[in-house]
């Protein structure tokens, strides 16, 4: 199996990656690329463990019109793609009629046959996680049902065409963000690092695709409503210190409180208050561990006026007291 990556902004020749069948490998292989032209800065990290190949693209561009990546692959693959920042357009053979778009905070599962396709980045900041694997890996984790029951996949297979299992994309909820963060910031070494990364990739696949089963039975959410709630999720992340009431967030979204709570839970899988609490605990933990904040200081920075209330919420969610972080 071979991939050829040709970036419009990369220095030197195209990146060629060759793999054994089904991405099989007995060790952990990692690499990083950071030489770009055309006003692009950033990194591309690659991780190859048994049966999966991962690319994490983190770009900043001053000329988004010229930033494209062409990919040529000589075997069919599946791709779980997560857009953490920016917006990404994928077109087969540079044919605009085949273009699929994935916006910020969205992910999807692609089937891609042997083909040439082009990624076009349309934002000045892009963070995209790509997880490649084959049919055998998917079926070893999920069984054969997910492919047999997908009419899109069966049609694409017959016509030898790519397809997206979730056209509009699914929202990247807090659980998925945490898994991705754990995957990309793993601090273990040697065999433990390999085992940890493999377990996180399996967890990412299972959570991403089983979440869709519950979403599939829900009422379809309008694109406009998704965008509104996504903007509120951004607002929450950057304003954890504020008093984030349902009434205030609903007003910012342009919904009544009932609709806001319903749509938010449909998209992110948990009630808005649980989501806010989870973000606050995550941020406070980071402040304590990485920036030397006391528990009282950290709790104040994430919106708790009383440190005891933070301690109760922390213990309820994680099962131990925040004082354990200090040890």
Automatic annotation (TrEMBL):
Keyword Magnesium appears in the UniProt entry: no
HTH araC/xylS-type domain location: 230-327
Gene Ontology MF terms: DNA-binding transcription factor activity; sequence-specific DNA binding
Keywords assigned: DNA-binding, Transcription, Transcription regulation
Origin: domain of life: Bacteria
Pfam family, one: HTH_18
Keyword check for Transit peptide: no
PANTHER family xref list: REGULATORY PROTEIN PCHR (PTHR47893)
Name of the featured protein: AraC-like DNA-binding protein
Organism: Aquimarina intermedia
């Amino acid at each position: 199996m071979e991939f050829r990556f040709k970036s419009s902004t990369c220095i030197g020749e195209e990146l060629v990656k060759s793999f054994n069948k089904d991405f099989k490998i007995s060790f952990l292989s990692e690499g990083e690329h950071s030489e770009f032209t055309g006003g692009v800065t950033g990194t591309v990290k690659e991780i190859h463990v048994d049966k999966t190949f991962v690319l994490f693209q983190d770009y900043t561009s001053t000329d988004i019109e010229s930033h494209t990546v062409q990919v040529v692959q000589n075997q069919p693959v599946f791709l779980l793609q997560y857009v953490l920042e920016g917006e990404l357009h994928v077109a087969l053979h540079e044919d605009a009629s085949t273009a699929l778009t994935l916006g910020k905070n969205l992910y999807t599962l692609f089937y891609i046959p042997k083909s040439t396709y082009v990624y076009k980045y349309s934002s000045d900041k892009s963070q995209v996680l790509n997880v490649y694997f084959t049919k055998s890996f998917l079926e070893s984790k999920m069984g054969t049902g997910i492919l047999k029951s997908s009419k899109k996949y069966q049609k694409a297979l017959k016509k030898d065409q790519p397809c997206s299992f979730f056209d509009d994309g699914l929202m990247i909820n807090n659980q998925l963000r945490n898994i991705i963060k754990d995957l990309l910031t793993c601090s273990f070494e040697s065999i433990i690092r390999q085992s940890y990364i493999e377990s996180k990739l399996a967890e990412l696949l299972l959570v991403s695709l089983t979440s869709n089963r519950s979403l599939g039975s829900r009422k379809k959410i309008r694109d406009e409503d998704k965008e509104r709630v996504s903007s509120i999720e951004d607002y929450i992340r950057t304003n954890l210190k504020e008093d984030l009431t349902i009434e205030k967030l609903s007003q910012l979204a342009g919904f009544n409180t009932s609709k806001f709570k319903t749509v938010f839970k449909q998209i992110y899988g948990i009630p808005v208050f649980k989501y806010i609490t989870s973000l606050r605990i995550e941020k406070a933990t980071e402040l304590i561990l990485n920036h030397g904040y006391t528990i009282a200081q950290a709790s104040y920075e994430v919106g708790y006026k009383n440190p005891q209330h933070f301690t109760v919420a922390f213990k309820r969610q994680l099962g131990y007291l925040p004082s354990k972080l200090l040890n």
